[in-house]
Every structure is written in structure tokens, then in C-alpha cells.
Amino acid sequence: MKILMPHDGPDIAPIESSGEWHSPVFWAVVVCAAGLLAAMLAALACWVARRRATLAHKLGGKRGPDKALVFQPPRRATAVRSPGSATHYLRKSPSPTAAATPATSPPQPQPQPQPQPQLPTTKELSPGGLSPQTPTAPEPLPLSKELADAAATEKVKPTEPENNDGRLGDLHFKLRYEKEKSALVVSVVSCQGLPGREPAGPDPYVKLQLLPDKQHKVKTRVVRKTRCPVYDEDFTFYGLAPHQLAAITLHFVVLSFDSGEAMALCREIQPRSLKMRSVGRGEVLVSLCWQPAAARLTVVLLKARNLPKMDVTGLADPYVKMYLLYNGQRIAKKKTHVKKRTLNPVFNESFVFEVPAAPSASLDHVSLELLVLDWDRVTKNEVIGRLELGAAGTGSARHHWREVQAAPRRQIADWHKLKE
């Protein structure tokens, strides 16, 4: 057996006890981290406590976190408060034909706003016009921004007077000007004591317009069978500057809607020619010039007047066709432009016809036929009237033709009535 001596083999040295885990820097980091964690826990606990206190305050109790919830009785409902106003409002639309029901419970006392001056709102309707009068009816409903409590809005329908003593009744309305919108608001509230021939009462409604422009026209609804109608309708007129209000006049008209009864009628259907026969077909102004040397006849169609109505619009779309006849046969044709939507067209159009010169040019065997027609896009163009100028004509047409023959190279114009 071999015994190892101390100097034999590798040298082994012991580990020093003062390593990195026992250094001062390590313990300083541990202490800082623990302090930061403690501060965060404390802040979280503080926030939780404040949150619970806030919720408890909102619930209306001063109970602790482990105190049981106590039943809270329901609070009494209150009226809705108008934004920017100290008064309350609750709009209920009253029925114009039936009495309003009374409120189920008395209204809560509310502070009354200070009275404000208002424009005169009551007018007496008389045959001579509108004249101010002291209100005889309860205070009408306020406007939409100044409505009072629900109890104040409920009104009982006033009784209808039986005897008017010649008076035409009263009209109640209110005015308000909104400067930020440049708008005038007119509220037609009601009418009182209107007359009427109907036993059950008239069917009144109110028409309103602004004078002197007469551009804004409005009207209320019709309230059936009553002499004291209630409307409560607001009408807003925009685009009115404050300095224009002094020149504006409100014109009210109270009318009774009359539907009437149907009337049975029977009429025979007749052709349009019968109506034209009684009314007339109008006239045309024609100028003629005969040039024997050139064998030419110049026709100037100037205008027409008093043509009959041919369209549903009460107008016509006239134009003229012209035919040159030689020995009774048509040898040339011309026509004017269409004049839209008129009964008195102005043509001012000139036409030249070549007359046969065998053996010598003359107007003895020549005549001129004119047809005035109504142009139509869908149906056939309808003849309004006709005119024939020539030696074989009658009346003014024959006289005009002889004047042209006797004075060659001269323009001679004359009016002629149209015939069938």
C-alpha cells in the first residue's frame, strides 16, 4: 500500500466567506426595492379607500364598507327645468275640440319669474279693422321657450257666446323676436266669440302675411264646428333685421272653411269649332307688293292677334302656312316659324312668290291662301283659321287684292279676320 503525502496531488484552497452576496451594494438595492413596493401598496390602499367613500356618498348614506344597504324610498318626480331659465315647463297639447281634463294632483309651488313687458296681444275684430282691446279671455299659453307648469297649461274650453251684438270676435296672439336668428316668431293662440251662420258653429282658420312685401303667407289648421277655436301654433319668419320691424305690418284674416256640397251637372260634349265660332278665330296683318316687270308677288306676314286658346295652358303655338294658287291649283308653298305660348304672335317674315308670266304677268288668275295652325308635339297640328286673298275673294280680302293690283311696286298692309 502506497501512502500519499501532503505534497503529492493538486493543491486545494478554501473559499473565502466574504463573496458577492454579502456585499453592501446588493443590500442597498434590496432595501430600495422594498421601499418602492411599500409606497405603491400604500397609494393603492389610499385610492381604494377614496373610491369607496365616493360611492358611499353618491348612494346617499354614511355607512361603512361592511354596513348593509338601506332601502331608499323613491323621490318625488319634479318638472323639467328649461335651460337658461328659472321657470319650469311641461308642454301638453290641448285638444281644440274637447275640454281638457284637470290635473290629478296640485302642482308644486314654484318661484314665479319677474313679469316682463309684452307687446299687446289681444285684438278685437271689427268691420273697420283691428283695434286694441282689454283681454276678455284667460292668459293664453306662453311660447315654447317660456312655458309654465303643466297645471298652468291645462285650460278649460271657454263657453261659446250665443249673441255677438254685431261684433266679429277677438284674436289672441303673441310675438317674440329672436335676435341671434334674425327671426320674428308669431304665435296664433286662439279666437273668441266668432260669428257664424251655421247652427253648430263655423270651421275657422287664420291666415297671416307680412306687409307690405306680401311674400310670407302662412295659415293655421282648420278647427271644426266652434266659435272659440284654440290653435297654439307658432310661425317663424326669418331674415328680418331689427331695424325692419318698425316697417312691418302683421295682417291677420280669420276665415271659415267651406267644403260645400257637390252639385250634379250635365253638359253636352261639343266640338271646339263651336267655341271658336262664338269667340272668333282672330286676325292677321298681311302686307302685299306686286312687281309686274319681275312677275313677283312679295308677301310680308307681320303679326296676328286675338287667336283662340288651343292648349290646356290657355295659350297656343301658332305658325302660318301660305300657298300660291294659279287657276285654282297650288304651285308654291311657304311657312313661318312657330311662335311658342302666345295668342298674339309677331312674325315679321317676308316671302317672294314667282307668278307665271304667260302670256303676260298679272294677278287675275292668281290667289293666295293662308292657314294659321297650332303646333303640337304629340298630336296633329290643328288649323286655327284660314284666309284667301284674290280676285274671287269677298269683303276686305277682295278690296285689299284690288288695291295691290292698282298700285304696283307698293307695300299695302291690311288686317283680315280668319275664317273656318
Strand content is: 25-35%
Report the sheet with the most strands, covering strand number, pairing sense and barrel closure.
5 strands, antiparallel
Which architecture of the domain at 282-418 does the CATH hierarchy give at level 2? Sandwich
- CATH fold category name of the domain at 282-418: Immunoglobulin-like
- Would you report the number of β strands? 16
Give the N-to-C terminal Cα separation: 165 Å
Broad CATH class of the domain at 282-418: Mainly Beta
Radius of gyration: 50 Å
Strand order of the largest sheet: 2-1-3-4-7
Please outline the helices and strands.
Layout: H1 24-58, E1 122-126, E2 129-132, H2 150-153, E3 170-178, E4 183-192, E5 204-211, E6 217-219, E7 230-238, E8 249-256, H3 272-279, E9 283-291, E10 296-305, E11 318-326, E12 329-335, E13 346-354, E14 366-374, E15 382-390, H4 395-406, E16 412-417
Protein name: Synaptotagmin-11
InterPro entries: C2_dom, C2_domain_sf, Synaptotagmin
Domain C2: 167-279, 280-416
